[in-house]
Amino acid sequence: MHSRKGLTITGILVAAMVLAACGQAATPTAAPPPEATAPPAAPTQPAAEEPVALKVYVVDYTADSTDTWLEDEVVPAFQAMHPNVTVEFIWGSWSTFGETVAGYFAAGEGPDIINLGSEFNGLYGDQLAPLNDKLGPAAWPEISKFIPGTLENASWDGELRGLPIFSAPRYVFCRTDLMPAGFDKQPTDFAGWVDFAKKATVIDPATNSLTQQGFVPVDAGTMADFQWYLNTIWSIGGSIYKDDGVTPNFDSAEADAAIQFNYDMKRAVYPDDTVGALPAGTGSVIEEGNGAVCLWHSGWAAPAPDSAVWSKVDIQAFSGDPTNFPNSKPIVLSFVDWWAVPAYSPNIDMTAEFLKFVFNQENNHRYNETMNLIPARADAHTGYVVDNPVLQREAELASQYSYGFAGILEPTQLQSILQTQLGLYLTDQQDKATTLSNIQEQYTQVLKDSGNLP
Amino acid sequence: MATVKDNPYLYTLVTSLATVIFIAASCAALGWLAKTIVRRAGGSQRRQEEAQAGYFFAAPWIVGFLIFVVAPMLASLYWSLTNYRLGDPPQWVGLQNYARLLFEDREFRGSLVNTLFLTLVGLPLQIGVALLLAVLLNQKLRGERSFRATFYLPVLLGFNAAVLLCWRLMLNASNGIIDQVIRSLSRAFPAFSYLNRGLIYVVEVVNGFFLGLTNGNYTLLEKVLATGFPPENRVPMWIQNPLWSKMAVILLMVWICGSMMLIFLAGLQAVPKELIEAAEVDGASGWKRFWRITFPLLTPYVFYNLVIGMIAALQIFEPVYVLYRDNQPLAPSAYSMVYYLYQATFRFNTIGYGSAISWLVLVIIAVASFFQFRLQSRWVEYEIH
Hints:
The complex is a heterodimer.
Chain A: H1 2-21, E1 52-59, H2 64-81, E2 85-92, H3 97-107, E3 113-116, H4 120-124, H5 132-135, H6 148-153, E4 155-156, E5 159-160, E6 162-164, E7 166-175, H7 190-200, E8 202-204, E9 209-212, E10 216-217, H8 226-235, H9 253-269, E11 294-297, E12 313-316, E13 332-335, E14 338-340, H10 348-358, H11 361-369, E15 374-375, H12 384-387, H13 389-401, E16 402-404, H14 411-426, H15 432-449
Parallel strand pairs in A: 1-2, 1-3, 10-11, 13-16
Antiparallel strand pairs in A: 3-14, 4-5, 6-14, 7-11, 7-12, 7-13, 7-15, 8-9
Helix pairs in contact in A: 7-9, 8-9, 14-15
Chain B: H1 8-40, H2 45-80, E1 82-83, E2 91-92, H3 96-103, H4 106-138, H5 144-157, H6 161-170, H7 177-188, H8 190-215, H9 219-227, H10 245-255, H11 258-269, H12 273-281, H13 286-314, H14 318-324, H15 337-347, H16 351-375
Antiparallel strand pairs in B: 1-2
Helix pairs in contact in B: 1-2, 2-16, 4-8, 4-10, 4-11, 4-13, 4-15, 5-11, 6-14, 7-8, 8-9, 11-13, 12-13, 13-16, 15-16
């Protein structure tokens, strides 16, 4: 009786094991938060011929053609050179990007390459592998072909931490056919822009909503975008940190003038907050019928390069306010998505080799061609970049006026502080002095909490 | 030297074997422990065996509860007493996180005010609409099953991202369908136009007051009062204006009241028909029959919906996240305590601070639920007198 019972239990256990083994391969469970302080010690690198499995986390903002090209062409070509290496892509999304990537670093394990956005070098820089010895000029001369501004985004504390994919600068795109009377080109100072925005905006009295919007700084509805605000500061020669490079500088004249300009632009378009925004549409806001006259954004938000509307679009850098700030300079704020190498990776050597392969001239060109973006490598500005006058113009402006959106301490928290305070100020919920004071005070506290300030 | 980890199939087999052995061992251990306790308490052999069998089969759930609920809760409690940021080890700070939340963090106080607004305004509306729908469905109408399914459909769809993105389009002040309908009705019926504008005025005054509480200044309220009665071309500014951001969330709360509606419907159908008929014979009007007979008998169901609804309202997250995640300037006028928790933990990586927020939310919900249960005896009728 007992032996039969025992046999039955044993049989059930064996069946359970077989069934479980037939399922998918187990994914590594997240380890509990590490007790040791960051950064972790560099893992031991595998020997030359041992099998190496590289995992690459890429955000799925890229077109399907990009995914196909990476998996069907790039990976086989690399594996032909390194037969002991397998490469697996993990496709993520921006909506869960922050939490997913934070989880990798918290667990101390994950992909060998992580696709990061522009400002993330400040957030994760200390936890990324230093790569100057592998990708610096002495080890890889091709690094000099990259646009310098783009390499700033992929660096931290004097070390390269990955390689930039593309440069997505923010330009001012304006519909020349919709410019108001008295304007035959884009304004070049703050007062000119406010006047332009007011005259170019049309409100339908029947619906109390916009039918034409003079200026769209990223977001058409609120016009309170923190990147637009920082761009404004930098365009008039300001800085978000004082001379020590750490203390916030939002009590400066430039910060004050920039926020005032953002407010004036908002009120030039929306006299008050009872006016409805442009109707929701598809495609770029400056595309035919979508209602915007000027847009400050990257190529993502602009019409497709082959759109007929481009014959009526003027592209410029944002010129700042030379009338009142002599240090003003035209800038195209450069956002750079890049592939970063976490310090926890056990395959840093081979990862660096993979980066060199994906980011060689031909592949960087091809990668960006699938997305119609400007390659981070200047020598990859060929073919579609120069054949298309729009992209050629964008590349010229980027080369001349690129200003890296990088080197920001605690960028996520600064973004939140700025968006909140800008939102309060631009909707008349608080005055300018209180807004700037709150930004200065809260950001200073954030930097103290993170140890950047004493 | 190759290890088990190098072979994914072997790794899976070993992991599975270890998991099964762990489950079996924990079942046996818990059963043995229960038997031992009963034996030491002087229980008979039969009671010992019953205890052993009972806990043996309940063990998988108990162990799972301990590992996946209790352990993380205790870890969270510990982290809430530390300055724990991603990449750095936790540093003990005691109650500093809680003190900062309660006495220094204006944004948390703002999220608390927003959540209370959603609860105090949104929940009664949600319950009221659910009750109204249930009363309508309780009439014997043709197609009542179809209506019932239709009103319950939002619950099935839920607050998933696709649905909420559709809502973002529908709530556009210019060409969103909701404001288009309001405009059309306002043009066709002057009385509706006055009603619409009156409601707009009331909503903006109330929200202006709450925003003043949050921000410490009443500029928007003053502007609304100075502007006076809205002009004819005004429509609600749902997700575009801080005076309307919470109302958009409340609209979604009301839209998803299907579960409450079904609870009320069950309650209505449990009301003894004899009582209603007797009242009808005595000449009571429909209104009186509802308020004197039906509603008192519905109070247990109202109480249930109130408790569940309040817990849900105090923890509201998805509508706020999808409607305002990409609209940061407007987010402070709408974000709830749980959204603030998400922001602190997963965007700012201040895990200790986020843990403190989660425990504070738990305390608030527990206190509110406690008072609800204490006060129920004053108004909930469980028996027919």
